[in-house]
Amino acid sequence: MLKIDFKILQNKQLKEIKDILSPYTKRAYLVGGCVRDGFLGIKSSDFDIEVYDILPEKFEKIMQKIGAKGVGKSYFIYKYKEFDLGLPRTENKTGLKHTDFDVFYCNDTKQASIRRDFTINSIMINIFNGDIIDHNNGINDIKKRVLKHIDNDKFCEDPLRVLRAIQFSARFGFRIDGDTLNLMKTISIKNLSKDRITAELMKFFKAEFLHIGFYYLYELNLLKEIFNLSIKNNEFISFSRKLKQGRKFIKDEQFFIYLLCGYFNLDTKVLLSNLNLSKKFANLQKQKYFHKKIKDIQMLKIATDQPLNKWLGLYTPQRIKQAKKLGFFDNKFDIKIDVDTIIKNGFEKEEIAQEIQKIKQKILIDFLKNR
């Protein structure tokens, strides 16, 4: 068996879990994302442990004894400190809702692993001795940086897995296996709730390799379904290049929506509303987009509202150089205008705002002349 030195195996809280479970079993495994992230060298904050050789009734009593909170008791899952402890299970889809599953206790590691979405998420590490179980060759797929589904029927039972594949590809820079991609093309996401879709998109928006995820959104015809966007191949290529370059400089989770709406002239307000992101991305509508070269005075206007390093449009080396040269990369251009004097000079209502903008414009022009 393979062994690997995961720091989590020396975790003090994990030692407590070992002490709790050791009288009853020697088969308890770290599973899922925390194991995958360990192989990828990524720090994980959520830890799932699958416990074998303990029947559900006994397991429930043990969890009650230590004060673990049942967060999915119908799925045999309990929360204890930073760990989710659960029993191995199989699942059968019974309806269209994501909660429509029959769940059955299963004490076999191979059988239990089939319910998982991708091979990279099915690797198991024994918390007692560090032994690794990899029924589905997930370690090799991590090395090859490829996403492969495990079981055709199980994969199709939850359409959300289509979006999970996309956000995984964007987060880890993985390609999706051809057979998996072909299977994904047969799955509709129409019955997914808006909240579930947006939850996966948020993980995508934070990803490093946005251009890879965008490729799969395009390939699976999901741009129309999710963003109401139809594009030609040349537009896809051009936008992908801009997205890939821009991500090197802009790490903000709003960048994808900013660039998508700006480049394709989409209504940002409508799109955010459709995705239930109006509050979370409230400031996005204030972020100005320029298709071509931006003039110094245009960039200075942006700097009056925020430091230029906070502007999502600063996604090219040329614009970054331009912003630093103007001197407002880290600090905003703070313009003070005496509104009382404007009012004393007889301006009223809309005229006041117009005069303020006129004065601002003159200050910006003078600044550029004198620098």
From TrEMBL:
<keyword id="KW-0548">Nucleotidyltransferase</keyword>
<dbReference type="InterPro" id="IPR050264">
    <property type="entry name" value="Bact_CCA-adding_enz_type3_sf"/>
</dbReference>
<dbReference type="Pfam" id="PF12627">
    <property type="entry name" value="PolyA_pol_RNAbd"/>
</dbReference>
<keyword id="KW-0819">tRNA processing</keyword>
<comment type="similarity">
    <text>Belongs to the tRNA nucleotidyltransferase/poly(A) polymerase family.</text>
</comment>
<keyword id="KW-0479">Metal-binding</keyword>
<dbReference type="GO" id="GO:0046872">
    <property type="term" value="F:metal ion binding"/>
</dbReference>
<dbReference type="GO" id="GO:0000049">
    <property type="term" value="F:tRNA binding"/>
</dbReference>
<keyword id="KW-0460">Magnesium</keyword>
<dbReference type="GO" id="GO:0008033">
    <property type="term" value="P:tRNA processing"/>
</dbReference>
<feature type="domain" description="tRNA nucleotidyltransferase/poly(A) polymerase RNA and SrmB- binding">
    <location>
        <begin position="173"/>
        <end position="227"/>
    </location>
</feature>
<keyword id="KW-0694">RNA-binding</keyword>
<protein>
    <submittedName>
        <fullName>Multifunctional tRNA nucleotidyl transferase / 2'3'-cyclic phosphodiesterase / 2' nucleotidase/phosphatase</fullName>
        <ecNumber>2.7.7.72</ecNumber>
    </submittedName>
</protein>
<dbReference type="InterPro" id="IPR043519">
    <property type="entry name" value="NT_sf"/>
</dbReference>
<dbReference type="InterPro" id="IPR002646">
    <property type="entry name" value="PolA_pol_head_dom"/>
</dbReference>
<keyword id="KW-0547">Nucleotide-binding</keyword>
<dbReference type="GO" id="GO:0000166">
    <property type="term" value="F:nucleotide binding"/>
</dbReference>
<dbReference type="GO" id="GO:0004810">
    <property type="term" value="F:CCA tRNA nucleotidyltransferase activity"/>
</dbReference>
<dbReference type="InterPro" id="IPR032828">
    <property type="entry name" value="PolyA_RNA-bd"/>
</dbReference>
<keyword id="KW-0808">Transferase</keyword>
<dbReference type="Pfam" id="PF01743">
    <property type="entry name" value="PolyA_pol"/>
</dbReference>
<feature type="domain" description="Poly A polymerase head">
    <location>
        <begin position="28"/>
        <end position="147"/>
    </location>
</feature>
